[in-house]
Amino acid sequence: MISNEIIIKRKLFIDDNEYKSTVDEWCDDIEKTEVRRFSAFVGPLHTIPEGSTEEEYLKLFFDNDFYEMMAKQTNLYAQEVHDAGRPNKRWKPITSNEMKAFVGILIYMGIVRLPQLKMYFQSDFVQCPLVSNAMTRDRFKLISQYLHFNDNSKMPKLGSKDYDRLYKIRPVLEVIDKFKYVYRPDRDISVDEAMVAYKGNFSAKQYMKDKPTPWGLKFWVIAEASTGYTLDAKPYLGKKEETNKDLLLGEQKLEDNQIYGCGTIRQNRKEWPVQFKNPKNLKLKRGDFLQKQIGNITATVWQDNQPVTVLSTNCNPTDIVMLKNTQEKTNITLTFLAPHL
């Protein structure tokens, strides 16, 4: 399922010559629509045999060359700091194998969450031998201090045509590009924003108060809906960023490419049915919904706890499903209708 507002525009599904600003075309008579059958191959595109270790799968993305690059650039930056008159006598050059252990610790910390960094290296109340046996806390902190992915001396100058605001992490972003080449997703995919935690100084840093991770870099992510497998992710660099319009789902003729969409839409969007502009005024009860249709595009207002406004082409609007919801306080299970979206 392709979701989110970036693809929910009427003009996505209508030929440019036919696109006209008119809201009178929305019809109350809802007709059944046919959705083409999905028959593409789904699954892994690699040749790793079943029963292989987790490390073998990780090598699809982080191979030995990547660890060697990380070690080389980290050592280079440590030397740069030393030459600038800020030497650290405790620093010793890192090897690719030690860098591999460092990355392994980061992955482990992402799975096993502890309140403080030092707790991963303790040997009393909390014990993490996979971490403490790999390296000391001081060594881990030193590597974190000098960790680098690109040569600062080769960074394009600000204002030049080759300037890259993400130059310092570009090799990491290139790893993400590998994701789509080792797995082919199922029919339903989702497009949404995701936050990568970050509180350092960077002009593209975002604050989104309603997100679990409010501070960080925002990425547009496309992922398989059923598994969450990420196929690609692009960082959002602000309103002034240059974008390749060929990559924006919002500018594609999705239907012409046999791509269907379903997603929430803001109630104030142009071309949205006038009657649905203020759904609270419709005074719907939970489970009630109203629909309008133009061609194979269906606009829906469905009343959950709050009105939900949806635009879709990926399903038959005449289908209805029964939903169940158990209230936490009373443990009472409620059933109510919903359109099949």
Description:
The protein is α+β, with helices and mostly antiparallel strands. Helices cover 18% and strands 20% of the residues. The protein contains six helices and twelve strands. It has helices at residues 54-58, 64-83, 96-111, 129-132, 137-146, 170-176; strands spanning 43-44, 183-184, 189-197, 206-207, 215-224, 230-235, 262-264, 289-294, 297-303, 307-312, 320-326, 333-339. Strands 3, 4, 5 and 6 form a four-stranded antiparallel sheet that branches. Strands 7-10-9-8 form a four-stranded antiparallel sheet, with no helix packed on it. The chain has a two-stranded antiparallel ribbon with strand order 1-2. It is elongated. Residues 1-23 and 244-252 have low confidence and may be disordered.
Supply the helix-strand structural class. Answer: alpha+beta
Low-confidence runs of at least 5 consecutive residues: 1-23, 244-252
Distance between the termini: 9 Å
Name the beta content range: 15-25%
Radius of gyration: 25 Å
SS summary, helix count:
6
Q: How are helices and strands ordered from N to C?
A: EHHHHHHEEEEEEEEEEE
User: What is the average per-residue confidence, as pLDDT, rounded to a whole number?
Assistant: 84
Give the overall form: elongated
Major sheet summary line:
4 strands, antiparallel
Question: Which bin fits the share of residues in helices?
Answer: 10-25%
Find the count of extended strands (DSSP E, 2+ residues): 12
